[in-house]
Structures are given as C-alpha cells and as structure tokens.
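Is glutamine placement plausible here? Inputs below.
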Amino acid sequence: VHPVYAQMERTVFDRMSVLARETGAINLGQGFPDGPGPAPVIEAAVRALREKSNQYPPGAGLPELREAVCGYYARRQGLEVDPQDVTVTSGATEAIAASLLALVRPGDEVVLFQPAYDAYAPMVLRAGGVPVSVPLVPPHFRYEISAIEAVLTERTRLLILNDPLNPAGTVASEEALGAIARLCVERDLIAICDEVWEEVRFDAKRHRSLMQFDGMAERCVKIGSAGKIFGVTGWKIGWMIGRGDVGLGLARAHQFLTYASAPPLQWAVAEGLTLPDAMLDDQRAAWAASRARLMAGLDRAGFAVLPNQATWFLCVDLAASGLPIRDRDFSERAIREAGVATIPVSALYEGEGRPEHIVRFCFTKPDAILDEAVARLAAFR
Ligand code: GLN
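Reply from A.M.:
I modeled the complex. Tokens:
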C-alpha cells in the first residue's frame, strides 16, 4: 500500500454515516438533503433510462450536458464558458483528483486553506505534490493575503479554493477573491476552484467565480456538482472547466480515471440545468427555512451557532456554548448517547494548532427530524 494510505483513517464523513446507520442515529453529519430530489430532474433520469442509450457516452460527457453547463453559467453567473472546455466527471471528488493528477508536477507545492475537504491533501500527495496549509480562523474564516504570501515559494504551483467554504458556511468577499486572483497572476499560479456550493447561498449572497477575475480564465479550473445543485449527492455527476492546455490536461487525466459517468444521470442533469430558475430558487428557499429552524432550535438549546451564509451546514462553537469538550469527543458522545451524528471540524484541519471546539451540523432535513435532533441535543448537553 502506498504510504499515503497506509496510515490513513477512514474519512470522517463515511465513518459518521456508517455509525449513524448502525446505531439508528439522526444523521446530521455527512452533507446530504433528505427527500427525493426535484421531481422534474428525477423524472428526466427515469425517462432517459428507458429511452436513451445506456452504453458508454462520450468520455468528456454528453454534448447536451456540456452545453447545458455553459448555458447555466451564462444565465446564473454571467460567465462565458465554451462547451469544449467542460469535462463531465463522476462527482466533484473525481474532478479534484483529475485536476491534481493533471496539473501537479513532481515536487510542486499546492496551497490548501484549512478547514478543507479531507480529500484534498491526500490527493495532492498522491499526485506527487506537497500540500502547504494556510489556516483560516473561526468564526469568520477570512482569507488574509499576507498569510498566503508567506507560504509561497519558487515551487508553489497551485492553490485550491473552496468558495463558498465547507464546513465554515462562509462566502469569500469580493476583495479577498480579487486579491487572490492578483496573487495568482503575479506568482503564475493555477487555481483549482471547488465551487460546488455556488448554488447553496442564502440572504441574497452572490456567487463570484474566481474565473471571472482579470487574468484568471486561463489559470482556473472551475469545479461544479449536480449533487449539490439539485440535492442528489449519490448521483456523482460533476464537471471541471479549464481552458487551453489546462483543459487538455484535465481531459487526459479524466479519461483513465473513470472514463465516463452514467448517461441517464447526465441527461437528467442536462435537463435540470435548463429548467426555469424558479426550481432552484424554491429549493434554496426550502433549505433556508431548514437552516432557520435548526439555527433557532440550537440557539434555544443554548448552543452558540456561528454565522452562516452558504452550504448545508451550521457550525456550533462548543466553547462559546459553555461546553469545554473537544469536538471529536462531542461527536463521538453525541452519536452514541444522544443519537445525533455530527462532524467534528478539527477532522478537516491538519497538523498542530487546529481549533477543536467546533462541530458541524447538516440542516437539509425535514422539520420533524431537525426538531427531534434539537430535543435530543438539548437533553444531552
Ligand atoms: N462534501 C460532503 C460533506 O461535507 C462530503 C463528501 C463525501 O463524503 N464524499 O459532507
């Protein structure tokens, strides 16, 4: 076994979900909405399964989906993308892996912000790169340009930016994005932009892709996820967008990773992306209502909830809630003793000095489940 995997624990997301299934706990850990997904998108998948081909689609993705992705970005974000530059992947996680395999050369340093999706660092290492961390500090998780500059060296080649940011639930400011873009241009860096939460924003918060900033179109990989946009996380349909040589590298890496993804689901996502915006807006309103319900419930139960602008998650500050317990211990005890699964945020930081007082709760659940979870947590704390 490669040394990267030899010492590795199972990812916290899977560990918590398996434990929740085994113990019958309410699963507010791994991020996914309960419920069937938007009916027109589900119906489109059923229709495609019956009426369209179930054989290998083109490796880069169905042309209809690549077109639909471009139409969606033009409509929702004012972003011009050429369908040639879109490669459909088996979820954003494959897109991250393919991007790193394509773009990391031996010994390249890759800047990661923490907290981060736990897939990033191992994939950087496996691609032959060196992860370099820039911690973001709760509760605001702001990008400090001087902290990024401080870790850049001659060998820095890439940075991975997840905006909106999971697990923090924050959205980078226009100023921060502009400054990161300038840094990428000045230091000749490529940015892998994991923007899977682009549609999951609240309170009229806008999404601005790093790709839209001056000089960035050529030096960005923009990653998107149908699982997040439509709340169908098990479908594992995503995409990555890159221009010129970067795009070519992505396509080459993808062809020998998964080659292609299930065509009925690609058809359904293509159709979903062309439906009227009302569907996405209604879905966002429903998620916002769930967010408000869990926020109010946790607040009533005496938990200090951090500000949230995006994602399906609320973070609770245990220390500020008067609970002097490490997040990992809280999560272990909450799942076994209260029957509620959560994610300890320290699992998404690497190394020394990480915060150990923040726990993440997924709120995209029916009201009755959220109410029951709050009741259990209130009795438990
Ligand atoms: N993004 C998901 C979450 O934060 C995890 C993804 C996964 O488990 N593959 O819950």
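Short version: The mean pLDDT is 97.
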